Amino acid sequence: MADWINTIIQGILIGGLYAMFAVGLALIFGVMKLVNIAHGDLIVLSAYVALIVTQSLGLNPLVSLVFVVPIMGLIGYILQRGLFNRTIGNDLLPPLLVSFGLSVIIQNGLLELFSADNRRLLAGPIEVATIKFSDAINVGVLPLLQFVLAVLVIGGLQALMFRTAIGRSFRAVSDDPRIAQLMGLNNRHIFGLAMALSLAVVALAGVLLAIRANFDPATGPTRLIFGFEAVIIGGLSSFWGTLVGGVILGVVQAIAATIDPGLQILAGHLAFLLVLAFRPQGLFGRVA
Amino acid sequence: MTVAALTIVRATPSTRLGLVFIASLVAGLLSAPLWATTDALRLLIDIFLYVALACLWNFLAGYAGLVSVGQQAFVGLGGYGLFALSAKAGIPPLLCVPIVGLAAALLSIPIAGLLFRLRGAYFAIGSWVVAEVFRLSAILLTPLGGGSGMSLPARIAQSVGRAPHDRFVAVYWTALALLLGILVIIFLALRSRTGLALTAIRDNELAARSNGVNVGRTKLIVYVATAFGTAMIGALIFLQRLRISPDAAFSVNDWTALVIFMVVIGGLGSFEGPILGALIYFLLRETLANLGPTYLMVLGAVAILVMLLAPRGLWGLVRSRWQIQLLPLQLRVIPLTKH
Predict the structure, then answer these.
(1) What is the reported pTM?
(2) For A2-278, which CATH class?
């Protein structure tokens, strides 16, 4: 019994990371109807940026976030203004194919620079620190920290979206880009900020995951798919939906992994397909 | 000069020339086993299979607007189907090809039922999830070698042709026949009512719908037909390779990324574009293949540039510059002038 509880707690906590991948996707989809196929590769890129920062400055990966998050935000802003803004329009193909091309470029660029070796970020003693809740139930400090950060980030984004001027701009360009422009908003800049914010969030999640799990240049698509599945499972109604989706995905994977490690990822995909079959609007959402 | 009347034609001098060119090309290719070396045949088979994959993906994405990044699901299914049916059930390999095609077409119907609930780009990622489900399931299939895959037993390879050259000739004929069949079917489909519906969907889905096009049904037909063709091509790919593994069979880079780049560079949404794109890819591959990962980066960058600067690809540029067309697909309005 205690084993099961531990497994489920593990799943919930890792679900927080998936939710952060998902909220990055949901944010840019909400603001500019863009689905970024390179999302997962950018997550992995953030882990490599952290690798460089930790190695060259001798920092703990958790401290390196001070550099990695703004760097990824800047990359996001530049990508949006330099590349994705040129593809936005009524036609769905250009953004899709351009981001797919970008995904292949990032993946192979990382392969060229860092080889296909497995890497991990080493965070020191915090990796193994645990909090004892009872004799049988232990929760790792790091996973707990990650989950708390995820909740804070998602709550923060929700508040930003509905309580701040920039959030109002995001909603305005989303509702009607032309009228937003007439009201004096610079859509291209707003889109750039949304992408910057999306990548800043996934940089945080990408680095946290890289402390817990190995990564290599080819792991990006899996990260993209986890984020996407969390979005669809949760429904597209609010950012909190992505948290629910991420947690469900994490728990399903954790339970399947205890049955057979080979089933872990497959079970997550099947859960997603089941939701799609029986509740395509997501568990808590409107129609996608 | 006043315009007195208009006629509408499909055939133009360039399409007539095009047909002569195509007929002589086909004649040359049909006779290739008589004069070509085994290596040349192997290269031609590769080209045929990739041209076919590119045309199929273009049919799906360029016309029906179904941008799938999960077509490797059907390539791998075809390959695994051929290995299972020939090695485990003793069915002659070449007979397995149409069988796995049919099986994939049947399986694609429920898959479409799920994926069509996702719009646009979400459909793309959803199709990728399905391909991943197939790959992860193949890893669990221990009778077919699990994660490390299996080789086609020698006696089965020899049943296609005793010497390697004979086997290549047999695969060559099948691949060429399959490619020509796929091209003819796409060509006829584009000239039919479905083709008109597809072109309308390609240009503006909403307008097509409001003019009475049954968009869902048309897309389903294209999806299922594409799965049928893609699985047969996949079966031949792995019959030629004689070895299969989950990572090779369901590779997104080999069976989808490369194909997308070919189509985008050649010309999305035209009949000739993907063929041109695949040929350009093979020309580049013979010269740049040593670059390794850099090569894929270059291809990706070129595809992005083409998408941004010339969304109808190289064939689109050629067509708008010289007004030529190889095949009688497009209707043209010719003003008849009175002197």
Answers:
(1) 0.90
(2) mainly alpha
